[in-house]
Amino acid sequence: MTNIPQTGAFARPSLKFDWLGYIRGDVLAGMVVALALIPEAIGFSLIAGVDPSVGLYASVAIAMVIALVGGRPGMISAATAAVAVVVVPLVRDHGVQYLFAATIVMGLIQGLAALLRLHLVMQFVSRSVITGFVNALAILIFMAQLPQLTPGAAGVSWVTYAMVAGGLAIIYLLPRATKIVPSPLVAILVLTVLAVMLDIPVNTVGQMGKLPDGLPNFAIPDVPLTWQTLHIILPYSLTMAAVGLLESLLTAQIVDDLTHTESNRQRETGGQGIANIVAAFFGGMGGCAMIGQSVINVVSGGRGRLSTFAAGAFLLILLTLLGDWVGRVPMPALVAVMIMVSIGTFSWTSITNLRRHPPASSVVMLATVVVVVITHNLALGVLTGVLLSGIFFANKVRQMFTVERVRRPHSAVYTVTGQIFFASVDRLLQAMGPESAYDDAAQHVVIDVSKAHFWDISAIGALDKVIERMRRNGRHVRLVGINTASADLVDRFALEDRLGLETGLAPH
To answer: Are 140 and 376 in contact, with CB atoms under 8 Å apart?
Structure first.
């Protein structure tokens, strides 16, 4: 796989590497992606309950605009199922014009998210969650092809399976002979020619829905400009914006890994907003990055912005000038391409890593996969993985905590080591509870926290409780060795009077 030179091209756009560095590969990859986008966009339109042109025009606009303003060259953005499923009630109850208005507000929210640098939240998504996200998407991509492979379904026969097998053979065997032309494109062209010349009875793209026969028109959504309208669309816009950014930023991470390059996530966040606003004004629904098409693009040789722009441009040409021919493309050809994407997307090493990786990491990965596959909700699956990662991390840090007691004739020294926060306060109270410090005969108690850090008000409250009980039983307590950050929390939130508070190590 060809790598883009590490010259800062993604942090500061470079004409050479972003647009002109890989012209042949970008153009050919864009052609493959354009063909693969058509059934996907039609399917997503049907999910949302709108005309196929809404999804197709959205894919054209988003792909071409994001190529100009996005932060991840080589990544494909278009109409997606993740956004389509969110807007079903809105379209059903209020109509497609409210969908366009909601998409504009979605874009404005994403632009605001870029200004607020909310893309940094992705730092809290662990590698296990990303792996689960990738595996779940691979499974969903494969499951989406099953209606075209189900025995007994309309247009599905042994010929269908033969064409899919032939398409996969071309995709995987042709690169051994030559890589001049992307093998997925060759598979689509060969199977289309065979289907047309031999009049093979298989399902075609045209049977999925009516293709548009003209250019999209600029139009302002026909909705009342009132607070009531905003009240209706805002909840949908917020959800669309969140889901779109989540999928886009995760896909950007995957493309980063595939190409061994880095993306500008803040720019990508703002670019998604601009692309969605433009799409809405040209009669399109909302969208975001697509992992399947992005993988197709990279595998086919796409690396720069030109590949994304070419995908949108070729899609527009196909719809406006070659609609009749596009409608005759056999679905088995596209199914073969998507199966290739599914196989290539799935992290097969994650299966063998189930034994090698820590159990907590494996649980996070599997939970993310299961939730996404069952609910078909990417955001819910990732949220589940992030929450589990946080719980496991907090429990791990909680266990990195000890209290050592040294008895003397008339005094006792408690040395606290580790991180004290809401998840570890119970261990602090137990270690210095009634069975130890409170029933200790020593009249003088020193609590040495020079090797500990207090993170939150729960930790300060636990420390309060320990000292208050000791002093209530007539013991003299000194807290020593507290660091500056912890001392600031003590000064601001502690209730117990800290007589004898010192810094440095406790005397021995």
So the answer is: yes
Token pair, residue 321, equals 């000038």
Residue 433 tokens read as: 């509870």
**b (16+ CB within 10 A) / e for 386-421:** bebbeebeeeebbeebebeeeeeeebbbbbbebbbb
Q: What is the pLDDT of residue 282?
A: 94
Regarding whether 434 and 338 lie in a shared domain, the answer is: no
Sequence-distant (≥ 6) Cβ neighbours of residue 499 within 8 angstroms: none
Phi, psi of 453 (to 5 degrees): -135, 130
Please report the pLDDT score of residue 188 as a whole number.
87
Instruction: Please list the ranges in the chain whose pLDDT falls under 50.
Output: 1-13, 437-439, 498-508
User: In which domain, by residue range, is 209 found?
Assistant: 19-345
Q: What is the CATH number of the domain that holds 407?
A: 3.30.750.24
Query: How far apart are alpha carbons 60 and 73 in whole angstroms?
Result: 17
Q: Phi and psi (nearest 5°) for 330?
A: -70, 135
β-bridge partners, 234: none
Collapsed DSSP state (helix, strand, coil) of residue 414: strand
**Residue 406 within any structural domain of the chain:** yes
Q: Can you tell me the distance from the alpha carbon of 145 to that of 137, in angstroms, rounded to the nearest whole number?
A: 13
Tell me which residue has tokens 């065979």: 194
